[in-house]
Structure formats: structure tokens, C-alpha cells
Amino acid sequence: MFEARLTAGSMLKKITDAMKDLVTEANFDCSSTGISLQAMDSSHVSLVALLLRADGFDHFRCDRNLQLGINLGSMAKVLKCCNNDDIVTLKADDNADAMTFMFENQTQDRISDFELKLMDIDSEHLGIPDTDYKAMISMPAGEFQRICRDLQILGDTVTIAVGKDGVKFSVSGEMGSGNMTIRQNTSVDTKEEEQVTIEMEEPVTLNFALRYLNFFTKATPLSGTVCLQLSKDVPLVVEYAMPDLGHVRYYLAPKIEDEA
Q1: Res. 257: pLDDT tops 70
Q2: Which residue numbers delimit the Proliferating cell nuclear antigen PCNA N-terminal domain (predicted)?
């Protein structure tokens, strides 16, 4: 038996919206410690990894490990029926062929429930290697979203260069080119979620497809801050941490020079 309850239904909506355009269907792996998900996009260029810790839920029960295959587009449609401040309960029996979504308003005088059929999804669990990243940037999530959106006007490949002067996002296309530089800002007067911190062991310059970065920024509503981790020849990590609940991480392989 699996049962999980969240008082902030809007959180589940945002998590689903953060993944559904990148991955159409995925297995939710439920265990006594929480819920995890790992899935690659159809072109196998990027990967999304979700972790929701059991202690982040208001109530969490999972008697044995379950794998629930869900179409994320269908799940997003079901969650549209949930008001942002509704309490959401997810339920599935051990051999269930459907997952139940129950939505209650705070006064509990309106309760609705929906069943979503489960799918058999073949997916190999990808071991994500522990990498020692040479550069780590923490910046406001809204700022990162704006940079990715604005630069896509000019081209489809962004060069992210981390150096001693800060982080430079550059794009060059047929129409023209553009650069945006973010410098470290950790002054005490700046609110924590507006601070920019840059940790660098050595300068890193890599190219990435902006299309995917714009998919990743759909997770912006989940967190005030985004963390980018870069190293030469390994995928970029874009992490949105949800305090007390877990995180959504995206991995994107760099573009090789001759592809760009």
C-alpha cells in the first residue's frame, strides 16, 4: 500500500509542470524513504531526476517498493482539477493498475477523487556518476529563466563561460549576438534568494542547447534559487531545491564543437 499526503497541492502541480514537456511518461519509484524518478527525454540529450523525501510529506506510507508508471501529461490534466490550496492524497495498492488522486479543500467540505491508469514503462535506471564539478553557480531562478528566454531570440546555442570575472552567457546567431554577465553578489543587504555565488576551481567554458535550458526553467516556480554545476566534458547539472521536500535536477550533455 502506498499513500502520500501533501497539504500544498500546488507543489505537485508545479513539479509535474516542470517535467511534462521534457518527459512524456516516467516511473515513479516509491519506497519507505520517499519518491524518486529518473527519465531521459525522447532524444536522449537530457535527463530529469526528481527526489521527494518521505519526511517532506504530511503523511507518507509505503509498505513495499513500488514502481508506478505514469503519463505526465495525463497527470497534469488531473492536477488541473486541484485548487492550489487543496490537500492532495496519492494512493495506490501494491498490485494496482491505477493511482488515486484525492483533493480536499482546507475545510474538507469538498472532496474529489480521480483515478489515473498506470502504465508499464521500460526504463533502465541510469547510474548518475558522482562528479567533482569545477564550477558551481547559485543564482536567482527567475534571473536564469530570463537569460535563457532572452538569448533564445538570437540563437539556439548558449556558451556558458565561468571565469574570475563572473559567469558569461553568450549566444551568436544569424541575426546577431548577445552576452549577459552575472557577477558574484553576496552582500548582506541582498535577500538570500537574490544572491549570486560562484565557486570556481578552474575556468570552464561549455556550449549547450538553449531549447533544453528553457525546458528546465519550467521548474522556476519550485524554488527561488537555481544551482548550476559545470565541468569540462560532463553534463551540466541544473538543480532546483525544494526546501524540506527534495529537489528536481536536470542533466544536459554539452554540445561538441563541431555540432554547434
Answers
A1: no
A2: 1-124
> Alpha-carbon distance 54 to 90, whole Å?
13
Q: CB neighbours (10 Å) of residue 254?
A: 21
- Checking if the pLDDT of 122 tops 90, the result is no
**Average pLDDT over the chain, rounded to whole?**
92
The DSSP string of the chain is -EEEEES-HHHHHHHHHHHTTT-SEEEEEEETTEEEEEEE-TTSSEEEEEEEEGGGSSEEEESS-EEEEEEHHHHHHHHTTS-TT-EEEEEE-TT-SEEEEEEE-TTSS-EEEEEEE-B----PPPP------SEEEEEEHHHHHHHHHHHTTT-SEEEEEEETTEEEEEEE-SS-EEEEEE--B--TTS-GGG-BEEEESS-EEEEEEHHHHHHHGGGGGG-SEEEEEE-TTS-EEEEEEETTTEEEEEEEPPPPTTT-
The CA–CA distances, whole Å, from 259 to 48, 157, 207, 229 equal 23, 10, 10, 22
Q: Nearest to residue 46, comparing CAs of 215, 188, 230?
A: 215
**pLDDT given for residue 260 in this prediction:** 39
Cβ 213 vs Cβ 150: under 8 Å: no
CA dihedral 146, 157, 215, 39 (to 10 degrees): -150
CB of 244 closer than 8 Å to CB of 145: no
Of the listed ranges 96-105, 118-127, 247-256, the least confidently predicted one is 118-127
Mean pLDDT of 59-67: 95
Q: Quick check: 126 pLDDT over 80?
A: no
